[in-house]
Every structure is written in structure tokens, then in C-alpha cells.
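Okay, can you check this protein?
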Amino acid sequence: MVATNMSTCLGKLTDEQIWSRGGAHENAVGNIVLHLCGNIRQWVMHGISGTEDIRVREAEFSADGGVSGTVLAEMFAATVAEARTIIARLPPERLTDRTSPQPGRPEVSVLEAIYQVVAHAHEHVGQIILVTKQMITTDLDLTMPRPR
């Protein structure tokens, strides 16, 4: 559902809208998508699956274009799909294992890491839904179509 909502939003915005910021203190929708992909990779692929941590967090927020909405939607969907596969294959006894996905942060259980990723994704996708509604000035009908 999260990837579907993300794809819907990105499909309704122009690339200019995706990379627009109201000010230097704000993140564009594109930055949030890059941030979510980096976070999911760091917490699930690295923290749970043990792959190398390749995240460059600063680059997620300093990007100011150059990636289309179509590419961002595909990137997010592929990242979520890979994370779902890793989580689905986890044996239950691994859920209590400890992991340290982010340098300098306290260890958490694998289950806590999963919850963190899910909550974080929902938080930011909610932001993208709100911004998209504001930019296109209409409802997105994400849950069920309603007569207007």
C-alpha cells in the first residue's frame, strides 16, 4: 500500500513539483523519496540482512533534481519489494537478534528495526500525500473513490 500510494502521488506531480521546495529549510518530495530508500536500505538490507552500508544520508537531502518521478517511483517500489523479501524470509528466532543499523546509535532488535522502518515510511509517505494534495488541489482517492 505504501509503494502504491507513493507511485500515485509521484504520478500526479510534475518533475518540477517533485523537486520544488518552499524554502531552504524544506525538503522536496524527491528528497523524501531518496531519504526513505536510504533509510530502508540501511535498516533492512544492511541492519538485518548484513549487506554493506552504502547510505550517504547527506546526498538524500542535498539532491535538487535530476531524477524523474517515474524513476523515483520505480526506485521506491524496488527498495520496498527487496525489504519485504528479506523480512518475509526471516526465521522467527532472528527477530530478537540485536543489530546496529546506524553508526553511533544504540542496538535494537531486528523486530524493532522492522517497526522503525515501517513507521518511518508511513510518516513520510503521509507527508508526500499531503503535499501532493496541496500541489494538485484535489483529493487523491487513495482509499476509495467517492462521488464529488
About this structure: The radius of gyration is 16 Å.
